[in-house]
Amino acid sequence: MFQHRSTTTLLSLVVFLFLMAEPRRVGGAGSPSPRPAPEDAILFSRWLVNQSSYGVLATLDPLGLPFGNVMSFSDGGKGIPYFYLTTLLDPTGAYALRRPRASLTLSEYPLGFCTETNEPQWPVCAKITLSGRLRILAPNSREGVFAQDALFRDHPQLAGWPTQPERGFHFFKLVVDQIFLVNLMAPARYPNVKDYIRYNNL
Amino acid sequence: MFQHRSTTTLLSLVVFLFLMAEPRRVGGAGSPSPRPAPEDAILFSRWLVNQSSYGVLATLDPLGLPFGNVMSFSDGGKGIPYFYLTTLLDPTGAYALRRPRASLTLSEYPLGFCTETNEPQWPVCAKITLSGRLRILAPNSREGVFAQDALFRDHPQLAGWPTQPERGFHFFKLVVDQIFLVNLMAPARYPNVKDYIRYNNL
């Protein structure tokens, strides 16, 4: 009997060790997928954007100064960052209505893959910045509905937020025109945006 | 004998369960310290900055557009973000020399405390943005040495990086003039910067 219990306990221990060894994902969209070869800039960019669940969205304040703000997003599997922003209760949405230029910056660090040196600024620990324009999406447009479905699926808590007009929540997309990627011991790369958007095998 | 082994295994299991339940810190500076009451905006801001090891540093590109970039930092226990930036191999350092306005944005999410809803954009999952000016520190100045010691202690990997002039690495500080904090189901707060810097009990 003790032998049986000991074996069961040992098995549980093995399972827990395995769980601890697995990189812990922090709320990323979709299902976990293996890290692509860093040399493939397009695939790697699409993977990093798809696996991330939040990032820092930087816009310009009324004086034209940079203002970063933590925001959740979803790419809906298309590589396009969609956001659920309030234009009334948080500065970023309001800033975007006045000056749409923005950048979304993500680190691979919170995904749990930067274990070799545990150093977020080490170039092999990937970082990406998508720059472009924030555009508000009409609520019943095809893309507005797509954005809502993607965001509420990846971030179920957002679906329960109050929707009264005085909260000012709208769906936005970042229309990307530049990608900045560092994921190798090499200078930053700027993957072609059209190739990034067209990539369909994720 | 089996009974003894079973007890030992069970004990190991309990230890591992405890380790798993502990929020996993991702490279934060200093030693882990308990989450302060969110109502105390000054203490909470100092805690979040001190416990974080990296963030997104947003500057203005040559066209005046916002560009966020993942950077490690250390506050050296003083609440002041210090960075080790290259002005030659990465855009942010070069941008900062031309236009020093910048913001540093951090999320509490990667610290492992946002477990209640697992949603980075939920207001109770804290976020902070420190805005100000990036200033380069003279290498042998008192503050330059302090920044170097703090950064190399919290980010040992940086200490091994090549220091040739053609790499262009310098120590920078963010001279903070505005703090934006969201950590409650309430509008953003703007803690007083002097009180933040003066706070000494961390």
Summarize the structure in words.
The structure is a homodimer of 202-residue chains. By secondary structure, chain A is of the alpha+beta class. Chain A has a single domain, classed as Pnp Oxidase, Chain A, CATH 2.30.110. Chain A contains 6 helices and 6 strands. The first copy, chain A, has helices spanning 2-21, 41-51, 91-98, 142-154, 156-159, 193-198, and strands spanning 54-60, 66-72, 82-86, 101-107, 127-136, 169-182. In chain A, β1 and β2 form a beta hairpin. At the A-B interface, α1, β1, β2, β4 and β5 of A face α1, β1, β2, β4 and β5 of B.
Helices and strands in order, then pairings?
The structure is a homodimer.
Chain A lengths: L1 H20 L19 H11 L2 E7 L5 E7 L9 E5 L4 H8 L2 E7 L19 E10 L5 H13 L1 H4 L9 E14 L10 H6 L4
Antiparallel strand pairs in A: 1-2, 1-4, 3-6, 4-5, 5-6
Count of β-strands of chain A: 6
Major protein interface: A-B, 61 and 61 residues
Helical segment tally of chain A? 6
Helix and strand content put the structural class of chain A at alpha+beta
**N/C terminus separation of chain A:** 50 Å
Poorly predicted regions of chain A are 13-29
Q: State the oligomer.
A: homodimer
The CATH class designation of chain A is Mainly Beta
Strand content of chain A: 15-25%
Helix content of chain A: 25-40%
Biggest pleated sheet of chain A:
6 strands, antiparallel
Order of strands across the widest beta sheet of chain A?
Answer: 2-1-4-5-6-3
Primary descriptors:
homodimer; alpha+beta; Pnp Oxidase, Chain A; six-stranded antiparallel beta sheet
